[in-house]
Design brief:
Layout lengths: L1 H24 L8 H16 L3 H14 L4 H13 L3 H14 L4 H13 L3 H14 L5 H10 L11
Amino acid sequence: MRRHLIMAAAGIMAMGLLSTNAGAASGDPDPLTPTQVKAELAKAQASINGEQYKSAIRTLNDIVRTNARNADAYNLLGFSYRKSKDFKRAERNYARALRIDPNHKGALEYMGELFLETDRRPKAEELLARLEKLCPNGCEELDDLRGAFSGNQSSTNRTW
């Protein structure tokens, strides 16, 4: 019995080593450092400011590939897809940002704008109400989403 346990343990350890080495050999990139993430987000924001959404999407996908818990990157990715008229991917990325940070004001605003653009006003109103609770004294995101309801959308290229 003891011999079987030892052999089973050795087999499990060998499998663990093989899977670790396979991951290293696959070339999966290491997570970006916080400084690198900040620099890449600034690069993506510059692309967005220049309305170079495909470039921003490439940069942002590189960030989330290795830093999957970055709500700002998902928010900007959603924005870039929305501006590229890929509403399905935009919504998916805003939702990811909000799963990571349910109070992400930028994602709430931009998803509300997406809902307005895709004729889902009641859903946009829900997000407006959430922003009103988050910003009892007002905030830029709240003002911009309110403006989108009246057609005075001003948030097209604000930083995250």
